[in-house]
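Is zinc ion placement plausible here? Inputs below.
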Amino acid sequence: MTTAVIVQTLHRINRQKSDLKSQLVRGPRTVAVAEGKLKAAQQHAQDLQDQLRRSKIDVDSKQLQMKEREDKIVNLQGKMNAAKENREYQALKDQIAADSQANVVLSDEILELLELIDEQTAAVALANEVTKEVALELDAVTKRVADRKVVLESELARVEKELAEAEKNLTGDFKREYERLVCLKGEDAMAELEGKCCGGCYQSLTPQLLDQLLVGNPIICPACGRLIYQDR
Ligand SMILES: [Zn+2]
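Reply from A.M.:
I modeled the complex. Tokens:
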């Protein structure tokens, strides 16, 4: 004879079982989130590193350009000093003035780039620090989840054994109905009576069904099909 007390016990154990199972499922998800965070931090550090490298290439090329133009100016000055015609002298002088002005502009650009490189170097260092911290976080999360998994699995084994023991008390049609429902809905196969309602779907139960509960028999909710028991 299946009593409401047995159903109550089965409900409790099934709840524990599904809670342990959902905790076991959550573990790898937590690790995956931490892995995603590390990947993003690494990508960010890499992007900043690439920007810094481009700035350095840029400043090298501008410094080279400036040096070449300085050499050119020295060369032009030599030609200017040796110039015999006034027109040639004036043309070289204008050219030197234009090149000197261009180098002033370039020199400003180089200064700006050097400042930018300082900022980018600091940003790369910071991003590398953050990446290190996030990697440590991932290690800690991975270890915590692995440790917890051992505990949860041993708990689950214990609960499943307890459940198998409790299920031995089921007989006949009720046993078949219970097995079908649990397979379908897990812990939601059962519900406690709440007032005069099914605790699963909150439909009112007929006086006849409530009478069954009063004498200790479990009932099946006509609305949602859950096995209902009364707390004792
Ligand atoms: Zn119901």
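Short version: The chain has one domain: 4-169.
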